[in-house]
């Protein structure tokens, strides 16, 4: 449980009373109660208000706010306000301003605007965290600390450059090691002095954001910047812990955000929290996968849904309203995948600046007679009803997909073989196939224990870091099924190619050699032709993007290419290795193939669907103290009938028994607890 | 009349004899006479020539030029030459160079290149205007002053930053007021010192030209830059007026140019002039609307067509030639909408630099035996024939559309709800509907008196400035019809939302409440379904971009949405208010709807078509001393027959009587003066 | 012969042993022998390795490399290593770093990164060339010097600005002449001091890379930067020649690379070499044309194919593998068009940085059992077989197409008439037509002697430099056929329009006057309608992009336009001039037209196809000592039968006789030497 003070699914969100006056606060109190809100995230962007100059701090408004909320039955998620620095600080201490990718010194503006290696930023951010912790350490309203906000963005200033060199020294020990890791004999890049190293951006080694001449330095800069921001987080966290060792600390993450290695971050967080902003056109399996990733960051521990909009966003190209029921549906989707909170950005809409068209529980009209408020209030009641029944429940998946930020960076920075290759999309193809089959699936990091799973999938495992291949071998030899794909096993952690034939360190377990990698133009395809039917796999499937031209070296050839000069050569192989199997999918196949492959593999392991729901209905299971709770989420605009098999369930939301078939209305939700098998 | 010295439609254009030698000048004299040219705009880009250093001025060439032209029967529109500074000035006084949106200090180059807050620029531009005024104040050739050229572009230098702070102090009085207006409690932006404010550009608050984190500062910066350039204009104008109080002063505007608030500018100009450069694919109603806007800048006062090309442009992607007759057709279109001059850029084509492929009366071949020259000469003759008959004639429109630059900035700077929303396009949809119905329509500013109209349309009146709603209420209560649309009444003049329900201050007159604003993806549509036929409105129409989800609160529901979750809710309402009506069009409808709506409303007011001309034929009316002149402009490549009803007309161009039906050749023009009703 | 030490088609490529250790070197030795490799390009990017600081030079590794290679039977193409400077040099002497088009000072990174006007660069590059020349001047392995690498890119720093001003003084003598040439009276640009001139880039006169306000300065800056890099080349070359006057010197060019005037460069090179990187989708006639251009740079002298990939590239969007046989096919295509070497980038694939996915003879797997290695080894054997039989053979084309870099710059910098106009594409349309007809065609510079040809084609000869028109007149009057097109003869070498009617100086020989130039929108077309059939021309053809509206003034009208206002006016004319003819193609026609026109013209001159091969099969002829060798290159994936007529040939690759018909397998090659006519 995140904090035992509030033993239920927390309900609330970001709240900025400092933008309003007393009269509005009274209305807030009334409306929060109407909506069943019990947690408010406060103080997110109040640094300038809290600290008008170097030595003055004003917290009276915050004292009053927290007291008022608490009196009204609302706890607080207390932010440290360091997500955007004050204007006066930027003018007096320009080191706090970032230098951007183009090498331009920025001026005051925006948010997430502080250089992570700025002495000024670190000094005042740390001090602010300390002041807040000291002041509110005993306040009964405080549930959790929320450090800064949506950390992100890179800086390329001279302070960062110096810190980068120090970081490199720490990593490599010697210039010799660095020169080797970066392969600097290429293009006359040998460094004789640490000072010769400059930051890689549009003025030096990179262009277009992710194009680079030297993958080594660019990869390390991503690691370094992720670490630099993490240092800022840790600085505040340590200061908070100094005063309040028992109050949990988090910062809100952003799903598949590309710039930070969240697996590394999650180690420093008591609980993961994240902001979920799908658009009307985001596939719901994409959202599901992202929840699974956030859950996977801390080995399956429940997370916080820190932000979602009750209605519309403002920063998307077309900010469509969430259709009736969809806010509730997506809230429960989060809970189904491991969220123990449902929180919004924002509780009341602001009247000025760029987020005024971002939806809120309380709209500009100011009263409760809106569709959005009514839906929020209804959900609030349901969550009160559910109480603590779902808290701390876990996934019981037997299938896991590996995701790794460093692998992602390696692929994105790669010059060749194809601009069409998108790591996250390839991962999603596998997740989506399992999701459509209603197979419970975890997203895990590359350092995770594989033993708890029966099937582990590592799509485009381009970068194989020390120990990974060995752990896969142990996993497979003990009976697990491992699936990997084209363009895997190519490089080590420095993006240096593993010599001796692709897929490098994965060659032994997969039993194949990839001689060539052919990139297909977007309008071209090859085929994966089954040599004979196998499980659900049969006939021919389209594939594209990249085609590894492989040779089986021990592995069985299950499918071959259907055309081009490598027609007849293997496109799908499986290698028996100890008691298990390792599959190699040599190209990027169509969705139908992946569903057939995943069904075949799951069948072999006896892994079953959560429920055999029709297309468009998602089914997810959480388990708490041995008790299974099954979420049935209808993402379609039509009602759906889901066969329940032999079991009898009770719907936790209605208290009604469900058996044989469960009817779920359009955009509706059922939360089924198994009673018995009849 | 602009200047009684030349009591006819002026005919001529930009002329740069300084680029040529004496022999060519003689040819110019001969050819101008052949073409019927009587006005030449001179000295537009001669600053470097006129002033080789701080203290030296050379005007001998200009003396000779003006004398020569005058001897040849050609008057001058005398420019002040400050549209581009000399290279020496840029090198010696770099403060004259702009800093661009990316924060980069520019170097010498281009034109329209001076920082409006540069002390150097202001000093020397003012002095140049004074020198010219003093020198030519008594020259009989001078018809009008032409200050600088096509003012535009913004600067972001330190001088501008300082001037911006001073401007803000002037506007707001106190930082408290500014902090409130900009809602700076959002994102920790509270300012404690005026010096903390930096200019909003790609280094601070904005990106992509019109994306911003803070609408308040970005909106004010547009106002400030528009004002800064206007200050430069006024500085020169005042200097000119000091010597020649009776010679009119203008500067050439550019239609819907986005960066300057031309309504504010027009107040400082004796006569509006503008440069008209449609492409082959510009709808002719777009050109018509722009003429109407230029006319509307000064309450319907006739304007100057300062520039158009006789044949091709050079800066468009595909610079197609104006087809035979089109130059004449578009010239008369300008006159029909209120132009009292027909002027070209340029009289003779230059041989070097970027405008050498811009068409001219005298082409590179140098003689008169070209299609272009022949057409120019024929038009010159016609204009001599027309004499002063059209001078000072006015529009008698009963319908007006409101256009407001600050509203435009507000919409463009808005983050959400949809990138598909384009204010000028929405305005054009309404203008186009009226234009196709041959309804005479004015374009007016938001501060205009509404009383002279019967129908006033304010599409996407997003920003409602103080007093506007009240003036609309008076207008409607007295019997007028007001039409407004979705996304109206949202904010005040600081882009702060008006609380209490959209459309804010327009809620009373429209009698509706807009609860939600839904943005549609580009490939999606909703429908406006008529509850019952009304006037010309019947059945169902497509709509899209944004759909306001509205409730009638007193207004009558005329049409409802046809699909999605707000199906059956109002999409078109009309509210009786006093003696008049206020319509609310809740989405952006297809063209057919707007024609049917406009016809319905005009019928109610008895507002009739100028003439019932077929599609592709434009009809426009000017009125002088009670005498109507009707322009019939055939924009098609086929001849057309226009029914004239009961009246008998005389065609001013041919002197021939026209009755029953008027035949207009392909790309042809008739200028009809009513003689009698038979 | 490039160097008599190795009297055969050289075979090898770029080799970077400094990236590897001794064990790998041994494998290299073994594998090079297996592959028949006899030349290695070394030391290309070793500056940092060779020179760790100002005064220290390390060449031991290079000594060993060259010795080892030579012992193993491999000669060296010895690079000077100045294509990328060391990091220490950039830090200590920042003048070596470029300022980019945006005006930003770059930091260390990439390659081709040195400012050509940097004193530091010039000093150390020259010294490096001298040290290398002195050290290896007597080494028997050295075949040729390879200066720097792929020169390119422009710099805009202050050193360049100063050098530009000096260059301008040299060119123009006086500011008066410069002001006139640049037409600076336009837009107030008159210069009174050389120091007032700033470099034209995104901060001053240009934007978007090729858009400019002043064509004059932009054109001169391209000339100046091309000259500046050429100065760097000459500095090294002269230093090399000081020690080794008899060893040839080259630098590798890049085909139609836009930034350097290769005709000027080739004059300074002993032999042209170039890097050929077509993609899977590059038309093979485009590659053929580029080979022809490289051959034409030095009047038909054979060139070096310095680089090509044996398999894949890394920097294209989709890096497809060369299909089986294609590497050999394209190698012989190069030889067919005049290459006397077949060389790869690279011999062994690197393991780190951006080119690790660029193909190589030795792949990452490290052994010889790959498709790529096998194909390389087979080609190596064939080239040994061919020995010196093809060395120094020449083209015997009677048709030439003119290409001119300054003309290209003029067209690209032009503001108007159409962004759709692409000079290289227009040239390729003509080359492609001839290529499909199997007509041997040369690509020549604008200063070339025309007398050796019967047909000379100058597509879009926009810029006519002094003497050119006169040379065309002589050529035609003596019986030659000259073909030119729309938008020709417009400007002189300063991009100043030639007054008196287009096509200016070509008006006399073409016998026409182009009154107007109409630009067509991309979806629009006109037609070239034959007045009566003529040769292979008949009926109607589509045309577009630009349509010159022309008048025949002596020329015969062969075709007229089919639509629009210039319907019936000439679209194709031919003018008899002395004993020859000059054609004017007034628009950009479809491919079918150009084939019919070229066939018609070639028939008139009795110019015949090399062989009447079917579509997709290329035929090219080289002649040595009067002996013809015909290359038959099948670019299709099907085998093809080529009729041989009466002659009997021997296939040099198989030694087999060929008569009547020659079968060529898919992607196959025949090299036929004529034995007799049967």
From TrEMBL, chains A, B, C:
Residues 397-608 form the Beta-galactosidase trimerisation domain. It is an enzyme of class 3 (hydrolase). It catalyses: Hydrolysis of terminal non-reducing beta-D-galactose residues in beta-D-galactosides. Residues 616-674 form the Beta-galactosidase C-terminal domain. Residues 14-384 form the Glycoside hydrolase family 42 N-terminal domain. Keywords: Glycosidase, Hydrolase. Its EC number is 3.2.1.23. It comes from the Bacteria. InterPro entries: Beta_galactosidase_C, Beta_galactosidase_Trimer, Class_I_gatase-like, GH, Glyco_hydro_42, Glyco_hydro_42_N, Glyco_hydro_b. Belongs to the glycosyl hydrolase 42 family. This is Beta-galactosidase.
